[in-house]
Amino acid sequence: MKKWVTSYFWIVALTLISAPLMAQETEYHFGVRWSVNGVPSSLRIHNIMLNFSGTPSHLDTRLPISQYIKNGKNKINLNSWPLEYEPDSELKVSLLYWQPGKNPNTEASTAFEVVMMPGEDNADPEVVFIDPGAPLQPLQNDIRFNRYEEYDTLEVNFNNRQSMPTWCWEEGDVLSDSNATRDSLAREYRRLYALFEAQDNDALMDASKTMIEELALASGESEAYVRQRASFTMFFDNPGLFQLRDFPEEPMTLNLAADNRVAWLTTKGVNVPIRFMHVQEDDVSSKVRLYFIRRDGQWEICR
Predict the structure, then answer these.
(1) 205 with 96, same domain?
(2) Which of 132, 148, 298, 303 is the most buried (most CB within 10 A)?
(3) Which N-terminal stretch is annotated as signal sequence (predicted)?
(4) Mind listing the pLDDT tens digit for each residue in 122-161?
(5) If we measure between CA atoms, which residue out of 170, 255, 274, 275 comes closest to residue 214?
(6) How far apart (Å, rounded) are the C-alpha atoms in residues 212 and 34?
(7) Residues 135, 27: contact at Cβ < 8 Å?
(8) Model pTM greater than 0.85?
C-alpha cells in the first residue's frame, strides 16, 4: 500500500484537517479510479473537489477516498467542459475496495464501473461491471449525465453497505451562502496564513490533529506517519524553491459542499488563498486546499 498512500499524502501535505474522530475500524478501504481522454475535468465527492485539471488532458488516475465515504448513499461527480466532444471521447468512473494491508495499486478489486460516451448521439451512462459482493453498489436508477451551460457532469450515486465512522464533514452546522459567512471564513484563513508566514509547522500540525487521526484511521497507517507526510517543512526548508504567495486582498468566492456543511474560499477560478509559488517554474504553484466546517461557533479545518 505504500506507493499509493505516499502519493496520496503528498496531496494531503497541501491540505489541512481538524475534526472529532470516531474510534471505529473499517473492514475495507475504498478508492476511486477515473479516466478522461483529452478533456478538462474535475472530480468531486459530495461536491468536495478532489482533483482539477483545467486543460485538455489524458488521465487515468486513482485516489483513496475512505475518509469521504459515509454510511448509505454517496455521490461522485466527474465534471468536464469541452468545446466539443470527439466521437471516441470517454468518461469512466470506477469504485474500488481492498483489505487492509493489501496494495491498492495491484490488489484492489473493482466494486463497479460506469462509462459514458458523451460524443455519441443520445448516449447514456452505462454500468459496465458490478461485483455483487462488494460493499459499494451502484444505484443504477440514479446515475446520469447532465449537460449544463458551463460544464457537464457524470453523476454516480452509490450505496455503501459497510459501517463507517462519522466523518467531520458530516457534522458541521448548515452554512448560509452569504457575505457574512465568506468574511468570517476569510478571517480564519488569515489566521492560518500567519502560521505559514511564521513557518510554524508544529502549530499547523497541531491544527491538523483530527486530520491526522482521521486519515490514519482511513488509511491504516500510524498517526506518526501521517503527521510526517502532512508536514510543510519541505516548503519552509526550501525558500529558494517555494515562496509563500501574498494573501489576496480582493473579496473571495465562497464555495459550499456536503449539504452546505463544508466551506472553502477561492480567488480566480479554482485558485486558493494560500499557496506556494515554484520559484524556478513560471505560473506553477502548490495549493494549500482547506475545507472547513463550523461547529460550536468556531471554524474547524475538516479536509
Answers:
(1) no
(2) 303
(3) 1-23
(4) 899 999 999 999 999 999 999 999 999 889 999 999 999 9
(5) 170
(6) 26
(7) yes
(8) yes
Residue 66 contacts residue 219 (beta carbons within 8 Å): yes
Residues 100, 146 within the same domain: yes
Give percent of the chain with pLDDT exceeding 70. 91
Distance CA 191, CA 196 (A): 9
Task: Rounding to the nearest 10 degrees, give the CA dihedral for residues 257, 190, 209, 49.
Answer: 30
Q: Phi then psi for 174, rounded to 5 degrees?
A: -75, 125
Predicted confidence (pLDDT) per residue in 172-212, tens digit: 999 999 999 999 999 999 999 999 999 999 999 988 887 88
Residue closest to 156 by CA, chosen among 171, 168, 165, 146: 146
**3-state SS class at 156:** strand
What H or E segment, with its residue span, contains residue 230?
Answer: helix 223-230
Q: Does residue 115 lie in a domain region?
A: yes
Taking alpha carbons only, the member of 234, 245, 295, 293 closest to residue 272 is 245
Q: Which of 136, 53, 131, 125 is nearest to 90 (CA)?
A: 125
Q: Distance (Å, rounded) from C-alpha 262 to C-alpha 160?
A: 21
Q: Both 62 and 123 in a single domain? A: yes
Q: Per the structure block, which three cell numbers stand in for 176? A: 448560509
Question: Residue type for 297, please?
Answer: G
Last residue of a domain, one of 129, 160, 191: 160
- Print the domain residue range for 142: 25-160
User: How many Cβ atoms from other residues are within 10 Å of residue 34's Cβ?
Assistant: 22
The angle formed by the CA atoms of residues 239, 242 and 245, to the nearest 5 degrees, is: 105
Give the angle subtended at the CA of 109 by the CAs of 103 and 114, to the nearest 5°: 130
Report yes or no: 208 and 16 within 8 Å, Cβ to Cβ.
Answer: yes
For residue 279, what is the enclosing H or E element?
none
Question: Rounded to whole angstroms, how far apart are CA atoms 234 and 303?
Answer: 20
